[in-house]
Amino acid sequence: xxxxxxxxxxxxxxxxxxxxxxxxxxxxxxxxxxxxxxxxxxxxxxxxxxxxxxxxxxxxxxxxxxxxxxxxxxxxxxxxxxxxxxxxxxxxxxxxxxxxxxxxxxxxxxxxxxxxxxxxxxxxxxxxxxxxxxxxxxxxxxxxxxxxxxxxxxxxxxxxxxxxxxxxxxxxxxxxxxxxxxxxxxxxxxxxxxxxxxxxxxxxxxxxxxxxxxxxxxxxxxxxxxxxxxxxxxxxxxxxxxxxxxxxxxxxxxxxxxxxxxxxxxxxxxxxxxxxxxxxxxxxxxxxxxxxxxxxxxxxxxxxxxxxxxxxxxxxxxxxxxxxxxxxxxxxxxxxxxxxxxxxxxxxxxxxxxxxxxxxxxxxxxxxxxxxxxxxxxxxxxxxxxxxxxxxxxxxxxxxxxxxxxxxxxxxxxxxxxxxxxxxxxxxxxxxxx
Length: 434
Ligand code: AMP
Ligand code: GLY
What we know:
This protein is an alpha+beta fold. Among the domains are: about 1-95, Rossmann fold, CATH 3.40.50; about 120-185, Dna Ligase, domain 1 (2-Layer Sandwich). It contains 13 helices and 24 strands. It has helices at about 10-20, 50-60, 70-75, 80-85, 95-100, 105-110, 125-135, 160-170, 245-265, 295-305, 310-315, 390-400, 420-425, and strands at about 1-5, 25-30, 40-45, 65-70, 90, 120-125, 140-145, 155-160, 185, 190-205, 205-210, 215, 220, 225-230, 235, 270-280, 285-290, 330-340, 355, 360-365, 365-370, 375, 380-390, 405. Strands 3-2-1-4-5 form a five-stranded parallel β-sheet. A five-stranded antiparallel β-sheet has the order 12-15-18-23-20. A four-stranded antiparallel β-sheet has the order 6-9-7-8, with helices on both faces. Adenosine monophosphate binds near residues 143 and 155.
């Protein structure tokens, strides 16, 4: 099967490794790809924000399947343009991608379909926003979200009226261009955050889905959830203290109404939805939709999935996903991110990396190869990933592998999964304070 994979990061490298492990041989082409992806197939320099360019390449090269990694090409309409050629795409059309591309659209969707989520107000007017902040009655922090895509930086938790006003004015003044000219204000939710991925296949005549195991990401740069937010410093799954009835509750309260709502609204879906969930004292609430796989959650999910990935993604892309329980390894998987010295403020590039022989999977997120030497080439540089019978064993396997990979200034969190492990060992459930 000839597959065009869109993207270049750790998520795409993890997908590529799994695609290449499919039972049927996969001829992989990545766009734009990376030096690591080039070791698994050809790379072509396509502009993922240009549907015409991607469709032109597809028309000339006729891949059997296109798999979209990031959200940007989906929001730009790449999946629509390629699907118009009769080529199956794992990735949603632009109309559905608005669930990630516009937070105001996503909140209106959640409210319309009765999906539990934080109370919110959508505002585009300076005076109206200032009045809202001055009369804020939902408690602090005030959560301000730029409506559009802002490379993961468009959410601010304002801890004072002054900070909220300053953030709001900066947003409206164009901090993220058009993306921040509309702002969603949300009441703060408190609880345990988790990532729930669902394969979805929705069209006018059918709506099916298949759940992937719930994972937990670690967004802050330092151990103990300290320091600034990042794209994600490590993840694990499944979550040991989530009971089958907790998963069932998320399925009934969040997933079912989402899939039903897509169909009711005439929004076709052919890909993955990643639900950012906050499990609060009153149960799971939806923080956001992403219309793509999480990074680094994908690195975890690919360790667990015991299916032929190429066949599974094609099933979704062709609109014939069978609702079922996906085959999974009876393991817990974990990934830790090895990040550049100055991440998340910067991404110090060109530092030589030593990679010995770790007994885990090495995933390349931001690297470049020069004269046979791997160099840092991004904020999140490498991921180590593995699975083991339980979370403690998975953590130990990563600890054992860590000395094998290093460079001067490398940052790594050593506590991925630690809090969840302690929570589980203490016999606590998801209803106990996190
Ligand atoms: P989002 O991109 O909407 O997921 O927001 C980014 C991060 O901000 C989330 O991963 C949460 O950690 C946090 N966040 C978003 N919305 C809320 C909220 N209503 N209450 C508390 N934290 C939130
Ligand atoms: N790990 C969070 C994300 O992919 O958005």
